[in-house]
Amino acid sequence: MPASFFRLAGVIGLVMVMVAGLAAADPPVLQKASVYTGSEPIAGWLMSEKLDGIRGVWNGKTLMTRKGVEIHAPAWFTAAFPPFALDGELWRRRGDFAFVQNTVLDDVPSDGWREITYNIFEVPGVPGDFPARLDRARAWFAAHPAPQVKLIAQRVCGGPDDLAAFLATVEALGGEGVIVKDPSLAFHAGRSPFVLKVKHFSDMEGVVIGHNPGKGRFAGMLGSLTLRLESGVVFNLGSGFTLDERRHPPLPGAVVTFKYQGFTQKGIPRFASFLRVRKD
Predict the structure, then answer these.
(1) 271 pLDDT band (50/70/90 cuts)?
(2) How does pLDDT run across 39-60, given as a tens digit for each residue?
């Protein structure tokens, strides 16, 4: 891959970041899950499947991404939505993230929206505990039917063994993981120790800040991406790419998701492997 490509990619990536910044409003204040460690007292909490789609935040008027960018849903899709806030996942089926991302983030709504569902997992502005908040959404959509809207099914967790069995069932079906949540608390924003994500591998995001050319069988293609993490750590991600992704790598400024297993003493993700580019 010629050096001119890397220089051009850097310029294009900077322009993309500037344009994205102009298009986004202030990001919504969201509740964020922490990682389950196995020591939390989860018996009696509620657990549900973690859907791998695009997070959709309804502010009572507009559907937005987690970063505050408007989602151009068809008018019919949100016509029955309430005047209060909702948080949910735009989704089609397991293992279908690419279709959802391409459909949901398109500026011009396509017929693909007919296959998208909005799966509610939180009702932020409603007082009361978690079941009471979900009941508010349930009552609204009972009176204002919308077949594309669902409430994510919740079940009581009997403890670590029950959680492990439920996770195994979800993964056997091709699901991403499980969310387990203390149902007794009022809504609170930010990273929460009472909302936990449970998966057999962890994932995170990084911003592409450079390309490193490949060698050997990858000569003339991408060897690795240089990523900057939210923590400020910079490292090279070199595995998990298809040949097509190596020929056409994400541009600088793009946000990518990768999986990993723990960290080194320097805070670098161990056994990191590329998953996808995030556009939301």
Answers:
(1) confident
(2) 999 999 999 999 999 999 999 9
Where does residue 56 rank: exposed (0-12), middle (13-18), buried (19+ CB within 10 A)? buried
The one-character DSSP state at 270 is: T
* pTM of the complete model: 0.76
CA atoms within 13 A on the CB side of 56: 29
**Among all residues, which ones are annotated catalytic?**
50
Distance CA 47, CA 52 (A): 16
Percentages helix, strand, coil for the chain, rounded to the nearest 5?
25, 30, 40
Distance CA 247, CA 142 (A): 50
Please say whether the beta carbons of 206 and 228 come within 8 A: yes
Contact 211, 1 (CB under 8 A): yes
Residue tagged 């899950």 (tokens): 33
- Given a contact cutoff of 8 angstroms between Cβ atoms, the answer to whether 181 and 47 are in contact is yes
Is residue 132 helix, strand or coil? helix
For 1-39, the pLDDT digits (tens) are 554 444 444 444 444 444 444 344 567 889 999 999 999
Closest listed residue to residue 72, CA positions, set 102, 108, 113: 108
Sign of the Cα torsion 53, 33, 280, 58 reads positive
Nearest CA among 90, 67, 68 for reference residue 77 = 90
